[in-house]
Amino acid sequence: MNTIHAYTNDQKTLDFPHKNYSRGRAAALSIIPTSTGAAKAISEVMPELKGKLNGFALRVPTPDVSVVDLTVVLEKPATVDEVNAAMKEAAAGSLKGILEYEPEDLVSMDFVGDTHSSIFAPMHTMAMGDRMIKLLSWYDNECGYSNRVIDLANYIFKKGL
Fold it and tell me: Quick check: 101 and 114 in contact, CB under 8 A?
């Protein structure tokens, strides 16, 4: 998993000393390879993925919206069309409001303010053979997260916790 991530407020606008040299470089002028906690966080929520997911991040000079570039090896053979259909079904069903299916050829700025946690881009799905699939999914790293926090607060309120 590679997250191509908008730079964050803890990054410097100019080159500055940092214990990790590349993280001290000017955020608005550089593509900065770094670690991500996303893979670990996913395996904590979905224990069945523990040890099966790893990743890194590229911080890029955009102020908002990031994209996940995910390559998976499937247990069963599947075509690009089958994978895209499954994602479309999930977006309309069990993940409605969390996952969006966006067939248009859009760019990062088109997703600023989008409340979904993931906006799947089917036109970028690729296959290598019948078991290795590459997926692309956008997200507004601030707005999507904020909306999931609101969902959690509503859940807690409804449960009376």
Answer: no
Model pTM?
Answer: 0.87
CATH of 2-159, picked from 3.30.1330.10, 3.30.360.10, 3.40.50.300, 3.40.190.10, is 3.30.360.10
* Domain residue ranges of the chain, discontinuous segments joined by +: 2-159
pLDDT of residue 127: 98
Cβ contacts of 80-88, under 8 Å, gap ≥ 24: 80/125, 80/126, 80/127, 80/133, 83/125, 83/127, 83/133, 83/135, 84/122, 84/125, 87/120, 87/122, 87/135, 88/122
User: What's 78's DSSP letter?
Assistant: -
Are 60 and 7 in contact by the 8 Å Cβ rule? The answer is yes
The residue among 5 and 21 whose pLDDT is bigger is: 5
Run of H or E residues at 155: helix 143-159
Span 101-117, pLDDT tens digits: 999 999 999 999 999 99
